[in-house]
Write a structure and sequence with these properties.
Elements (H helix, E strand, L loop, with lengths): L11 H24 L8 H21 L12 H28 L9 H42 L4 E6 L3 H12 L5 E7 L9 E2 L2 E5 L4 H7 L4 E4 L6 H13 L3 E4 L3 H6 L8 E2 L2 H4 L9 H8 L3 E5 L4 H11 L5 E6 L2 H12 L7 E6 L5 H11 L3 E4 L6 H6 L1 H21 L4 E5 L10 H20 L3 E5 L2 E3 L5 H10 L4 E3 L5 E2 L1 E3 H14 L5 E4 L5 E2 H11 L10 E3 L19 E3 L5 E4 L10 H14 L2 H11 L13 E2 L10 H9 L4
Helix pairs in contact: 1-2, 1-4, 2-3, 3-4, 10-18, 11-18, 13-15, 15-16, 15-20, 17-19, 20-21
Length: about 650
């Protein structure tokens, strides 16, 4: 049998062997302490019985509760608590059985205090070898670390000195990873944390030196080159502040992945990366009632339209974690569906079937056939045309896909008695200025009407822009920066709401558990962000300077755009749900026009004729707040006189009043 070296993991069979050897020793010492003598002649039978019982009962209990399945190299408080609880339980069982044996075998002598003494000694002899193995491994790691650092310092002089911002669990994990991987060549000189209770403390021997305002002078005093932000759940406002301080001090900034990336499983906590725009826009993590979502989806047949898209694919990932009986991914683009299918098959839960359907929701007969074949119980409708300028130029496509496609899905859902239907909508559906926004508003009305007809929880969920989605302005800015600029922004006062894709999907799933039918759920999008600020942040995160390296040009508002997005439709009675991030309009279904179906038929005729004028007139009649965008001058650059922006409040008031 190969004897393990210090650097190799000591397997649990060695600990099992040490338990078999040391437990009788602990039993012997228990008798010695009790009798105050090393001579056990008078108690020899009791010692023999107690020792034999200990080497049977304790290992059996250890095996039952997984003590022999722990990796003691990385033992922590959890392992110590498990060991303490398990040895206590084993001793209670051992003492009870031993005393019963003594009761029925009078010649056997066993003092009643021996099991109590044995409890403490057995804890020592079982814990000791495991902790020693961890200490030996740790010592070996430090030895190898010192050796590598010496070789690194001898070979090069560019070992980076760093500060870690965040003296919590994230910072602690980051420090451990950096220490155990000295090839990274980063020396942590201290922590930064705004919590006054942590000041002057030490974490793994490294001091907490100050708060974030102290970064510049601490960097000078300690010759720091890099700042590592290790706060995966910190809001974007805090990240932005720290990045600005570091930029002014000329410090390189790295970041631990955000909580959504960690939850998504795509990265681990030890993966350092450059600070990204998603970090600056990050908000507090969403608290999701996972149990309610799992209850809704577990064991159900779930169909997701647009399953290959940015929102649809994330829906697929999160729904799959709830172990549905079958997940049907329906999409029009075969390549995107192929990609998400391959990804999900690698993590398919036992008992879940994964089915892909290539189909176009604009074909009613095809939708009826799909729904009758698979009979889904829950439907998430994410398929839509979302690009505002493109739909402005192609209104027929917006109508056939967003409006008629939604109608086809709802008719198919009603035909097979789908229990839950959730449509992904957009904040652009509120007082729309674009054909895309108007088409999504009509789709919402269709969902409300279907809820009224079925009496089932058919609902719509509205949210704004999502970071990383296809067509996202973030991707456009990245491409423009990579090309050397300029970065183009439509208007200096343009603002938008932003969410991460996982956050939007989490709240969408949560909304599905709340709805009773006919409601609109609007997600709390936080504070709106100026697009020009977004562009400036992205340029600076790339290590460039606005006006010197890359210019920002204002190109004028595109057809269908508006300066700001709204979240509430006039007449909808909004209130907060039990979830702090979700608003609900319970009366949304009361706003459905009585002549909705006639208007839908008119839109269908106009689409068949490709009659743009008739489409716009019908949308204006169906949605009184639908209004045309305000034209803006083109070709303005940073530093030029800025155009006067109309006050949005009078515009909103006129829109609510139905005026043009």
């Amino acid at each position: 049998m190969r004897v393990p070296t210090i650097s190799s993991p000591i397997r649990n069979r060695y600990f099992f062997a040490s338990d078999l050897l040391l437990l009788p020793l602990a039993a012997y010492l228990s008798f010695v302490i009790r009798l105050e003598s090393f001579n056990l002649e008078a108690m020899w039978s009791g010692f023999l019985v107690f020792s034999l019982l200990s080497i049977v009962i304790v290992p059996v209990v250890f095996a039952r509760f997984g003590v022999y399945k722990r990796f003691w190299r990385y033992a922590s408080l959890d392992e110590l608590m498990l060991l303490g609880a398990t040895i206590t339980g084993a001793n209670l069982l051992l003492g009870t059985i031993a005393l019963i044996v003594v009761e029925f075998a009078p010649p056997i002598n066993l003092p009643r205090s021996v099991p109590v003494i044995f409890l403490f000694l057995s804890l020592a002899v079982t814990t000791g070898p495991r902790l020693v193995s961890r200490l030996l491994w740790r010592a070996d790691v430090l030895r190898r670390k010192t050796k590598r650092e010496a070789s690194l310092n001898g070979a090069r002089s560019n070992v980076l000195r760093a500060l870690i911002v965040g003296a919590g669990s994230g910072g602690s994990l980051m420090l451990r990873e950096l220490r155990e991987n000295p090839q990274i060549a980063v020396e942590v000189v201290g922590f930064i944390d705004d919590d006054p209770m942590k000041q002057d403390l030490r974490i793994h021997g490294v001091p907490v030196l100050g708060c974030h305002q102290d970064i510049p002078h601490l960097a000078r005093d300690h010759k720091v080159h890099r700042v590592i932000i290790a706060m995966p759940s910190a809001p974007g406002k805090m990240i932005r502040k720290i990045v600005e301080i570091c930029e002014r001090a000329g410090l390189e900034t790295k970041s631990m992945p955000g909580v959504y990336e960690l939850l998504d499983g795509k990265v681990s906590v030890n993966q350092l990366r450059d600070v990204q725009i998603e970090d600056l826009l990050r908000r507090q993590p969403v608290r999701t009632d996972i149990a309610a979502v799992a209850t809704l989806l577990k064991g159900k047949r779930v169909l997701i339209t647009g399953g290959g898209g940015s929102i649809g694919s994330e829906l697929c990932r999160q729904v799959l974690r709830c172990s549905p009986a079958e997940m049907i991914i329906l999409g029009h683009g075969e390549n995107s569906v192929f990609v998400i299918e391959n990804e999900l098959r690698k993590q398919l839960p036992a008992g879940t079937r994964l089915t892909t359907v290539i189909a176009d929701i604009r074909f009613a007969d095809r939708m009826q056939a799909v729904f009758h074949k698979f009979r889904p119980e829950v439907v998430f409708h994410a398929a839509a045309h979302k690009h505002v300028p493109l739909m402005e130029a192609n209104p027929t496509e917006a109508i056939t896909n967003n409006v008629l496609g939604t109608r086809n899905l709802l008719n198919a859902a009603l035909a097979v008695d789908v229990q839950h239907f959730v449509m992904i909508s957009t904040d652009k559906a509120v007082n729309p200025t674009s054909v895309m926004g108007a088409s999504k508003r009509v789709a919402e009305l269709l969902v409300h009407q279907a809820a009224e007809r079925s009496g089932k929880p058919y609902v719509a969920v509205r949210f704004g822009n999502v970071l990383g989605s296809r067509g996202s302005v973030v991707l456009t800015f990245k491409q423009q920066i990579a090309a050397g600029g300029p970065v183009t922004v439509t208007h200096p006062e343009m603002v938008r709401f932003f969410m991460t894709i996982p956050e939007a999907v989490q709240l969408t799933l949560q909304s599905a558990t709340i709805g009773n039918g006919g409601e609109v759920f609007t997600l709390d999008m936080g504070e709106p962000v100026k697009i020009v600020d977004l562009a400036r942040d992205m340029i600076e995160l790339s290590g460039l300077e606005v006006g010197r390296d890359i210019d920002i040009h204002f190109t004028g508002m595109r057809p269908g755009e508006k300066l700001y997005e709204e979240l509430f439709v006039a007449g909808e009675d909004y209130q907060r749900t039990f979830h702090e991030k979700i608003f609900i309009a319970c009366n949304a279904s009361t706003l459905v026009p009585k002549a909705l179906l006639q208007h839908i038929q008119m839109l269908e005729i106009a689409a068949q004729r490709d009659d743009h004028s008739l489409i716009l007139r019908t949308l204006n009649t169906l949605i009184p707040s639908f209004r045309n965008p305000i034209p803006e001058p083109i070709g303005i650059a940073v530093g030029d006189p800025q155009p006067q922006v109309p006050d949005p409040q009078p515009l909103l008031a006129r829109a609510i009043g139905g005026q043009s």
